[in-house]
Specification:
Length: 207
């Protein structure tokens, strides 16, 4: 863990810190955005499950909240497929099902981040722990870990965890606790640490 802490602290002294700070401000600004924009972000996170963020963002920009709310399941599936994005039929089905939560901002506004994540995982088909945490971070949350393959790989490389073959909700929370301890040592939010670690593995700062 000491080696990883030092790497993050060195990265904090570079221009990457400014890029990450700007990105976090964009996430924070989501708190004032409309229900439509929140629903669009929810659909984006459904799209990114077991698939690339970049193509998910491209699809989101093509469809917008209007399309997520009104297009047929078949049309959505075709648009997703055209972008060579994985699991187009399931993603389209889950987006149509998610329309029940088009007012997701209002639904979770009085919940803590942990309560909101639990609600999303239990009620929104296509969202697991990682995707629900991703959505909450992108809409201004600070205190949840997004344990994707890049983050898990980095934590395993530095002997903080053993890389799991299957990530159950219980194991997710156990690893998240180690992630929280790491963030506490660095005196930064989980959201900020996630972006630093993601950059270390990919060389990018995405949403």
């Amino acid at each position: 863990m000491i080696d990883l802490i030092e790497k993050v602290r060195q990265l904090e002294k570079t221009e990457v810190n400014d890029i990450i700070t700007k990105r976090l401000a964009e996430f924070e600004s989501f708190k004032t955005k409309s229900e439509n924009e929140w629903f669009s972000e929810l659909c984006f996170c459904i799209l990114t499950a077991n698939a690339k963020q970049k193509t998910g963002a491209i699809i989101q920009n093509q469809i917008h909240f209007e399309g997520f709310k009104t297009l047929s399941e078949e049309t959505l599936a075709n648009l997703i497929k055209l972008n060579k994005h994985r699991f187009h039929n399931n993603k389209a089905k889950y987006i149509v099902m998610a329309r029940e939560f088009a007012n997701i901002k209002t639904i979770i506004k009085d919940k803590t981040e942990l309560e909101a994540r639990e609600f999303l995982v239990e009620n929104v088909k296509g969202l697991g722990m990682k995707e629900a945490s991703h959505f909450l971070r992108n809409t201004g949350g600070q205190n949840l870990a997004i344990l994707d393959r890049h983050i898990l790989s980095l934590l395993a490389e530095h002997k903080i965890i053993e890389k799991p073959k299957t990530l159950t909700p219980q194991l997710y929370k156990q690893i998240e606790q180690k992630f929280t301890e790491l963030a506490s040592t660095l005196r930064m939010s989980l959201a900020k640490l996630d972006l630093f670690l993601w950059y270390m593995k990919t060389g990018e700062v995405l949403k």
